[in-house]
Amino acid sequence: MNYVVSRAALAAFLAVAAAPALADAFSSLTVSNVTVTVIDLDPNDGIAASISFLPDPAIYMGGALIRGEAQNYGDSLSGPGAQNRTYANSGAWPSTNVANSVQTNLAMQASSVTGSSSGVGFSALSMSGSALSGMGQRSRFWASTNVPGSSSGLLDFTLSANTQVVFSVDASMSAGTTNAIPWQGISESASVTMTLFAGGMAPDAETPLEDIAQQTLIVPGGGSDSWNGVLSASFSNLGDASTSGVFGANATIEGVAVLAAVPEPSTYGMLLGGLGLIGMLGRRRHRAG
């Protein structure tokens, strides 16, 4: 009886060893509580602290731009069974809500931005994606969100003298993968990045002042990570006259799923042959006893 149990356990072990190892990837990001705080750096100068966004975002500036991809394929995107789905959407106005999603057999991606007619042009955004592995298939998702969605990706503003402006958001992000085994030299991965940018010129009108706030998660195969917190970027006008500045927000997510190499038929044959040899030896020992 001990022999039978041992052989069954070994057979199960060999079956697991011969099976392909699936490797999936996931990423998500949510942003909320978008705030613009104006701070008077010299309350005694007689100038009220203020900010105005130029050009008027309700008339001239478009809303957010979202782009996304979902793919699954074998050796290449042009091979049999390959799928490639993409989208690109932008809001006509900052107050426009923008959303879209895309899906293949193994991958999906969805993004949305809640527009705002005041402030920096949005009040919330979310992005998520998943890439699953399949027999002989790898998959991938990718997405990018820009606010504003203009070609420069920057929103102009005018800031009063001796004034600081702070742009801040609450962000929650996560990324994860399920297996650390590469396939054909490619390892699974998942990532999330959120960036805020604020900048302008110093009082000498020659020196650029920039502040970049960025949080990134990069997860290799077989891991996971998450982050929750506040991102803030600021610009200070230390001059005695109003000056111009710019603000921008960008977010990206990406994930790649792969399938560990499937054993060749010859490998399966060796495994089965080894199991048969063990069985034969076991029977001889049983008869000898």
Automatic annotation (TrEMBL):
> Which organism does this sequence originate in?
Pseudoduganella umbonata
The record's annotation in InterPro entries points to: Ice-binding_C
This one is known as Ice-binding protein C-terminal domain-containing protein
Query: Which keywords belong to this entry?
Result: Signal
Q: What Pfam families does the record tag this protein with?
A: PEP-CTERM
Signal peptide bounds: 1-23
Q: Which domain of life is it from?
A: Bacteria
UniProt domain Ice-binding protein C-terminal: residue ranges: 261-285
